[in-house]
Known about the structure:
This protein is an alpha+beta fold. It has 2 domains: 3-217, BirA Bifunctional Protein, domain 2, CATH 3.30.930; 224-268, SH3 type barrels. Helices cover 29% and strands 28% of the residues. The chain has 7 helices and 12 strands. It has helices at residues 3-12, 19-23, 35-44, 92-111, 175-179, 185-202, 207-217, and strands at residues 26-29, 52-55, 76-83, 116-118, 122-125, 128-139, 146-156, 224-229, 232-241, 247-250, 256-259, 265-268. The strands form 2 sheets. The protein has a 7-stranded mixed sheet, sandwiched between helices. Strand 5 (122-125) and strand 6 (128-139) form a beta hairpin. The longest helix has 20 residues, at 92-111. The protein is globular. The N and C termini lie far apart (37 Å). It binds biotin. The site of biotin has 19 residues, from helix 3, strand 3, strand 6 and strand 7.
Amino acid sequence: MTGDNILAALAKDNNHIDAAERMKHVLVLDRTDSTNRVLKDMARDGASTGQVVIANEQDAGRGRLGRSFFSPKDKGIYFSYLLRPEAAPKDAVSLTAWTAVATVRAIERVSGFTLGIKWVNDLVSGDRKLCGILTEMLIDNSTGSIDSIIAGIGINVNNSPEDFPEDISDIATSLAIEAGHEISRAELAAAMIKEMDKLSANWPYAYEEYLEAYRTYDITSGRDIRIISGASIRPATAIRINDDFSLKVKFSDGSVEDLSSGEVSLKLI
Ligand code: BTN
């Protein structure tokens, strides 16, 4: 995937933006450690909202909770998008959830394939994950508000089953495996740029629309789950997505809790 491929895909069905102008704020790298790391440095140096970094390969792709994100060459999309919303740090949770919706929409448009959202921000087909989202934040210390949000999205696009290392081969999948054919990564990158531009323009006015869409794609509610937080593992049942994108869960003793994404991860049972 090159900048030229993405430019051609952006220009194809687009009358409302100047694709060449848009691409001036899209940095395409063949290989890097982490697109989130690169974009965070650019944000510190004053990059503006809408700046994108895409790589064909990451050798230190970051995941949530200090994990790594498997990012092999020319197989996936490793994509980071800079937002500079006027928002408080607590709003980062909903921006991450909106990003999950934007990503489902982009994938749907390019592949015809609709994925589910596993709370809070994994995209899955069945119970297998094919996309993860890691949002990182810079805070303006003088005001305590958000300086910038780096929304990092990793999508397994054209991996075949044998491409995955053993530790994730039972839980990971790719778009190509699910759709049964290869998907153009340049088309998908272009669709991601458009959806994230839309998200950026819609924030925070379209809150209800994104919440409703998130609930449509949600596959966690109604499921028995395990809540993993550090060394603790608690079984529960997921009830629903609350208006603030937290997850209402019920434990076997009848008690109810609202989970915020922070340090928690879930396993579906
Ligand atoms: C997760 O599933 O835990 C989140 C994975 C996020 C991976 C993406 S790939 C692009 C961006 N750069 C990174 O280093 N991480 C994110």
